[in-house]
Amino acid sequence: MTVALDVLGGFLGAGKTATINRLLSSAPVPIGVIVNDFGAVNVDEALIAQAGGDVVGLTNGCVCCAVGDDLGGAIGRLRQAAPAVTRIVVEASGVGDPRRIAQIARLERDLAHGLVIVAVNVRDLAGQLADPYLADTVQRQLARADRCLLTHADVVPAARLRQAVALLERLGIGPERMFLAGEEDQACFAPASGASGRFSAEAVTGDAPHADLFWRRHWPQARRVTRAALEAWLGGLPEQILRIKGIVSVADHDHPVLVQRAGAAQTLAEAPGTQPCGLVAIGRPPLPDLTWPDTTGFDVAIPTGEPVR
Amino acid sequence: MSDRTLIVARRIHTMNPAAPVATHLIHREGRIEAIGDLEAVAPFLDGAMRDDRFADAILLPGFVEGHSHFAEGIAWRFPYVGFFDRNAPDGRVHKGLKTIAEVVAGLRASAPADAAAPILAWGFDPIYFDGPRMTLADLDAVATDRPVAVTHASGHTMNVNSAVLELIGITEAAELDGLQRDADGRITGELMGPELIGRVRRMIGADAFAMGLDADGIRSFASLACRAGVTTATDLVADFSEGSIEAYQQVAQDDDVPLRMVPALGFFFYPGDSGVRRLAELRALAGPKLHLGMVKLVVDGSIQGFTARLRWPGYHNGAPNGLWYIAPAQLEALIELYHCAGAHLHIHTNGDEASEATVAAMERVLARHPRPDHRHTLQHCQMPDAALYRRIAALGLCCNLFSNHIYYWGDEHVAKTMGPTRAQRLSAARTATMYGVPIALHSDAPVTPLGPLFTAWCAVMRRTASGRVLGENERLTVAEALRAVTLGAAYTLKLDHLIGSLEIGKYADFAVLEHDPFEVDPEDLPKVGVRGTVVGGRYAAAGSPA
User: Which Pfam families does this chain map to (chain A) (predicted)?
Assistant: First the structure.
């Protein structure tokens, strides 16, 4: 049976292991993965169906093994242990060229060309490309990538994400080849037939192709709100809001509250001094249809969506 | 004391500045009890056996090879097809093969009797050939019905025949980095890069560089060492597997093997902190002839293979910069891990950017965790300029320089990799010494032959294979070069209290020489005959079976 082989590359800290962990736990069909360091893979003990030799099988049908110093051998062991698996993902080393690994792997019998996917940590990319020690290594990895998986997008300011997107474009990687880690994993690893990331699917319109990649809104606060109501409201925000920050005056406290939320991480702290109250949110399209429940005490401000600069 | 032995030699160079020359020496229990003239040894003569075998010989401290691989001892199980004449462990001189036709004939002659067995050869040196490079057709002329693979001297390139291509699944259509093609796009059979070469070795059979170490291999290496006057040598990338450790131990317990062994744990065999644990497990196995505790890191590739990391403006011929085998941030973490565990680091850095990144990482680690007398050593360290050497000196790092490279690849460095100006500072021993960097000189055997007298000659004459002098101002004196291959190397191994000079209390380890290297014309250093070695007081004649 022909098996398709993808290689997941990316510099150190790009989020390769986290991606592997997500693929293993949520693959729609069983896949095989070959990793550098099995110890780094976060497989729940309860999910391990059998562990024989250096190939571990999971209850969902996925299998995982460590590459050691023999990629061909690892592919063989994995295929023998899980003959039904039709897709194998190989994790490249942080300094290796994933295209080169794909070339070597494809010398194995009955392996079809899959994808070379390079994970890019959007927080680190600009620094890496400015670092004379690292720039050429990172560029070399990206130069022959089929697709990029953008990681850590949920923990950086939108401007940083946008900068990374622009840098990748400058390296010749169009938005149709960029995918957001997490929500677009499956699309990114889907066989090449027409899948494309949200960056292109929804954003490429008008003169400025990425002006509406992200939206930003500012809501000034006119009336005070209780802390409990604020927390409930924050908890109910839709997924596409990447980041929210601001200072909110609360009815049941002396001091206003500093709200900071990036992805799933959220903090509410006492705000220093007396500053203008309101919230700024940054998110991906579509613009959420947010209702500001005035029962909480917020005035309903007319949101002004504006492109991020 | 019945086991006291008196040695009287024509002259003994001690490398001890307080008493540099002697004629008489008493050794007991493998160590030097007295050394000097007759007066110095007189109180110990009672009952001493007199050993006159060295009466007409010159004794030096046994040479210390700070960067070699015991795989040299295994390599001779396979045909040698290098350009230069080379000594095998059995003493036979293998004539250098000067044309592709000679290589093809040599391979045919050395084919294993088993008609299906692969023909695996090593040491191929096509850079010295005029005319076209070796092709698939050349090796198909050796055999078409069995695999033929020839590893180049640098270890980074391999030529194969059609049978190998078929076995490993390479077709004309293959899109494959490192698969060389001629002007018409045809595959030449030349393969580059560790992934591709590694696959060949796995598919057609392990050669000298892929086989595990065994005791016989170490014994063969020890025979070569004895012929070269070497009494202590490193095995500078070791897997520290049960098999290797058993081989070291077996050899270490055999008094007839004239070699002290200093293997270094190769970091890439041990993910995470498992290397630290492995070193701790093995600590108890160390002894007088087996020293454990060193760790080898490999930061970049080779300059002549264009895989070394060079600083701006990069390679002279415009080739893209080389490869990090360890990313700089990971390097700092690895250095910290092993440094804090008390290990002694030997770090392969060929290009100056790799050296610089290592120095920068070392600066930060040592600022956080100062440790007096760490003696971490940059291995090869071929390209630092004066400014980088000043930083190296400030950190107390040692450098083990690859002086043999000047001869074997100096012309390549002028023409392709470094250009005529930077190539002058290849293995800049004078600059290093001027700034107080402790240095050693090495062969990297089997990359170049084991032979400290030749290595010293390289550092003294700095002459390439074509006769060009590279960096006249970087020359060492004969005395400095001989110190670097004895006490200098011992210092980089943290063994200078035991070996490297002939002083009371240190091991009775000597190189037994026919001529005085301090007196011959420096040009003739490699011609100084090595009669054998003494290790722990036991004499081994060159050519005697180990």
Answer: cobW, CobW_C
